Amino acid sequence: MTNKTVFLTGASSGLGKGMAREFAQRGYDLVLTARRLELLEALAEELRQNSDARILVKALDVCDGAAVAQVLAEAQQEFGQLDIVIANAGIGVTGRAGQSSMQDIERMIDVNVKGLIATVEASLPILRTQKSGQIVGISSVAGSRGLPGGGVYGATKAAVTNYLEAVQAETQGESLDVTILAPGYIDTPINQGAKSRPFVISAEAGCKKLVDAIEKRKRFAFVPGWPWSLLAPLLRRLPTSVIAKMT
Fold first, then answer.
1. Least packed by Cβ within 10 Å: which of 16, 85, 129, 143?
2. Rounded average pLDDT over 14-29
């Protein structure tokens, strides 16, 4: 068992909820954040019944940078140390260029890009003061190549990867680890309406693999590694004429 503490955004559903369950089973204490406090409280009660994890829940909209910094500071004060900060909150809305709602587009950029950056920027001073810690950002296989119907979502995930790669370079030599995770299709609500979900795996299996990669402190990992470690780079090489036929 461990006394390490995980701070997790977007913990009320999907990958966040699944990772919270996996971390609790492995003995971590948890700070669970999301906009929907009632869902967090229900999850916290479930985890307390099934593990010995200490759990703190906080309502948080990652688009509010000041609130992100405040909640991180409160969590660090409550537990004494934050060992892993996971910027997981994200949304996905499909739509082709010229046919998408600007409201949906702006919301994806706000949550997926600005929210992740706000979380990382606010956590870095805390982890540097501690002289230890790990930052984890959730990107996506979709960030490997722009695909029809997912241009904006893929662009947000490509931005996430580029930003976190810069953070890795800027923290080189410090006692910090920065992990970039790029999931493929893991069976969660964000993709359950998709017409096609190649190589989809269950949420339980996917979240176990995500937590495994985090514990190994990997710098970058596709999840699952097979077949995406082969297919994602291949996407970059495919002709646009082939990509255009994809749905």
1. 129
2. 97
